[in-house]
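Hey, resending since the last one bounced:
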Amino acid sequence: MKFNPLFMFSREESDTKVANDRLLSYSAGLTGQNMTYNFVSNRLFVFLNTVLEIPAEKTGVITGVSTLWDAINDPLIGGLIDRRKHKPGQKMRPFLLWTPLIIGILVVLMFADFGFNQSQTIAFVLILYILFDVFYSLQDISIWGIAAMSSPDSNERKRVIQWISIAAGFGGTIASLFPTFKDFVVKRSIMTEKTSYLYGAIVFGLGGMIIAMLAYRMKEKVEPIEEKKTSIFKDIMDLRHNKTLIIVCLARIVQSFSIALPWEYFFETKGISYNVFGAEISGGTAQVVYGFIMGIPGAFAMFFAVKLINKLGGNKKLLVFSEAITIVARIAAFFIGANDRFLNIGYLAVVMALLGTAQIFTNMKDIAHRSLLTNSIDEVELKTGKRTEGITFSMQNFVSKVTGAIPNFIKGIVLAFLGFDEKAPVPDGMTKIGVQTAPRFLKYRWHHFILGPAIGSVFYLIVILFLDNDDAQHMAEVERALSEKREAAAKVSA
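The structure tokens again:
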């Protein structure tokens, strides 16, 4: 087959196929959305703790409680989306057009310092985060839920999910540029650390959401069989029919019970500086290099994720393989960099290579998870007659928020235990993390950075082994039976 360099701009469209140019717009929307999400989820804790100097325990409570609230409202919003009356093809799309700008503005406000005292700041951030959560849930459930409606063909949905997962990962990689920007402007006294976060919120937060509006071009091609409306509570309870969803959600939740800390708390600490061919590489820059190593190879590998899933024999086998590789790689990396050997650029390079290799397969997990969820929606429709894009993908978001809240509580406790001092004076050209001198904090930074995620991987692996019904033959049978059921329902209604 001849390669066409403009294949992503093809106009091919059918009842089961998604035009490539439309898929490109949808994918770009996911890139923008994940720029925003990754900036908020990775930077807000550090900003509150190190810039606004809110104690670690309180920061953990603020971000943890806020994220738990977000998790709770997701199923409610998902249920409302499933139940609301809508025109054909307009179940999810309207939320992709008007919510992004509101979200972007709220992000900018969260990273602004209005000079409030500590209690006022905590209250202000909580209010903003609650508002952010509501609008983000509407946008997030819709942008992922529409993937399940992109085609009645599971293979075509798998193609869509592969591309948008790649795009989402790319958005996270773009957001990881922020530490280099912060490191550059702060060390050269161009702007304060506080101001750098505000600029980051404008570029990655508001800017990302403006790009996210492109997802509005995606079409909805699956309409549910007409069914009797029930209460939201019953819709949530009906999720018991979705064993796949339950297992995937539980596996992701138990994975969050690790003792990992944000990258900044390792890379920006005292002594992290390297000389590479005569050029000094600071901790902030090393962090971005690490982010690219963890992101870019995995992003390219995702182009082959569907082929690897099929080669291994299903999504479950990819998930098991990925976590096994992660556990082995992190244990090996820990011993390679132990006893402060990570301060040597050679040892650190080997560690990064190991973790980057493992991340290639970890990135593919997102495609496997979403393929499983979109397939499970077909299975639930076959059992109950209901399409549950909203409630199903709200549970995906519910889990994402819970798995964000649990580490936030843990981070606050761990940092307090390690003796992190958010009130430490900061000379010009330094960051709050860079001036820490607590012996316990410096001694155990390596353990948390490397082994923390491995603990979560062990928990995840134990649960995901209970997954079944994940082969192509099973899904072909589900699609056949569902097609017959829809045709029968159409004849009755006619």
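The longest helix spans residues 345-384.

Sorry for the duplicate.
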